[in-house]
């Protein structure tokens, strides 16, 4: 599973519990310790509160600290590590976490610029990909997983979520195959009717 370069994976501001859960939202994937997970994490970002930003700053001395950002010295995989941002957006200070590939020159700066550009838009909107990523991030582990032997071989290992049908029936469905109505049903009410925007 390869995802796009930079994407917001959770709408809203993550508290500490949510933040730690989002740090490894791919923990259930099959062959977790056998694959190169860099493409899964590279480019993921989400907003956090100032208290979580400060908490992470005080855990260990940062790998680097520059202007409005600092990076953790512990790498998640390959050259992927957490970078935390304190950004002035539309006259207010906001805080973000992102996974950046430090093997790519300028990765933290490109991430910062992408966050500021996205969050400075005058009209709130979400792409289909952002809706799907929010569903994955906010669904409890019992209601999501990865396609197994019940699915055709070429679909195994892809992300699945429970979908409820008529008469309280339910079954797992590929996350990427959710219909617009199924996506709307799984989103919080305040996100359901946001206009569609083109994916970055």
- Beta-strand residue fraction: 25-35%
How many separate helices?
7
Rg, please? Answer: 17 Å
Order of helices and strands: EHHEHEEEEHHEEEHH
**Largest sheet, spatial ordering of strands:** 1-2-6-5-4-3
Query: Structural class per helix/strand content?
Result: alpha+beta
Report the mean per-residue pLDDT as an integer.
83
Share of helix among residues?
25-40%
Distance between the termini: 18 Å
**What low-confidence regions span 5 or more consecutive residues with pLDDT below 50?**
none
**Total E-strand runs:** 9
Strand count, sense and barrel status of the largest sheet are: 6 strands, mixed
Polypeptide structure, described:
By secondary structure, the chain is α+β, with helices and mostly antiparallel strands. The chain contains seven helices and nine strands. The protein has helices at 16-23, 38-41, 50-57, 107-119, 128-138, 180-186, 189-192; strands at 7-14, 44-48, 64-66, 69-77, 80-89, 92-101, 144-146, 159-164, 170-174. The chain is globular, with a radius of gyration of 17 Å. The protein starts with 6 loop residues before the first strand and ends in an 8-residue tail after the last helix. 28% of the residues are buried. The mean pLDDT is 83.
Features:
single chain; 200 residues; alpha+beta; six-stranded mixed β-sheet; three-stranded antiparallel β-sheet; globular
């Amino acid at each position: 599973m390869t995802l796009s370069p930079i994407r917001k994976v959770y709408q809203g501001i993550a508290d500490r519990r949510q933040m730690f859960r989002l740090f490894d939202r791919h923990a259930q994937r099959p062959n977790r310790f056998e694959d190169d997970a860099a493409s899964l994490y590279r480019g993921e970002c989400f907003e956090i509160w100032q208290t979580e930003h400060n908490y992470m700053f005080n855990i260990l001395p940062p790998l680097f600290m520059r202007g409005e950002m600092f990076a953790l010295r512990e790498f998640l995989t390959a050259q992927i590590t957490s970078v935390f941002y304190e950004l002035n957006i539309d006259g207010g200070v906001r805080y973000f976490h992102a996974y950046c590939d430090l093997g790519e020159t300028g990765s933290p700066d490109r991430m910062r610029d992408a966050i500021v550009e996205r969050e400075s838009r005058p009209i709130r909107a979400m792409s289909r990909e952002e809706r799907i990523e929010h569903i994955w991030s906010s669904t409890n582990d019992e209601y999501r997983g990865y396609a197994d032997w019940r699915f055709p071989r070429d679909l195994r290992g892809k992300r699945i979520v429970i979908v409820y049908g008529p008469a309280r029936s339910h079954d797992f469905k590929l996350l990427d195959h959710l219909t617009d109505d199924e996506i709307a049903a799984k989103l919080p009410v305040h996100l359901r009717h946001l206009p569609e925007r083109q994916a970055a």
